[in-house]
Amino acid sequence: MGFRFANVAGRSALVDADGGWHDAERASGGAVGADPMLALESADALHAASNLLVNASADGALADADVRAPVPVPRNVFGVGLNYANHAAESGVELPEKPVVFTKFPSCIVGPTADVELRSVTGDYEVELVAVIGGDTRDVSAERAWDHVLGVTIGQDISDRALQFAAKPAHFDLGKSRDTYGPIGPVLVSTDLFDDPSDIALRCDVNGEPRQSDRTSNLIFSVAHLVSYLSSIMTLRTGDLIFTGTPEGVGATSRNFLQPGDVVTSTIEGIGTMTNHCVE
User: Whole-model pTM?
Assistant: First the structure.
């Protein structure tokens, strides 16, 4: 059975079908550690413990809990630019022949309800599916790549466009790594809970207004391709994050940038919803 993993107040948690959360260490009889980063190393135990939730009493409703980033301190965070044809078109650039990969520094990672602290008037939103690596992954083929994905979650690749393009060539890393510019969550969902993990709907609303909507089947470079490509360059480790790209509709195109008071709602089919308030 697949699992839905959460970080509740800094402790590992498993989420049942009714939205209740269960302390993972208790639910697993100690097989899953309390530290979320260590728990991600125990994929088999997470699956096994999820089978025990059916008749167990939840510790509380996830909707009422202190939910933090399911992967709070990843070793590496990769971003992929221009990975939807419609986003490349709205950006006025040619389709990439190879994945456009950049770094989001791990210090930007925050939880699914964290405030986004805007530091300029050019803050932008980018809803993305985030793939989380499970186990050491090196030189894996695209055909086997999904076997090395522990699960997927929602990500917002919040971007400061002025900072991003302040230099030539552009420094994507800094522009996308301000504090709070990497909300993820609310849960990490194992891939076996999806009929087809390569075809998932995602959307982003700002103040209730639809801004982005697409399916991950329209990625130029699929999740499997990205995992294979990156693993051909370096060894990926458990908890490494891959922000897989965003579809059209970003604020930079319409000049409709984020402002203090805005509410960014990011939803991905089979995972849930993140709600992040923008503050000055």
Answer: 0.97
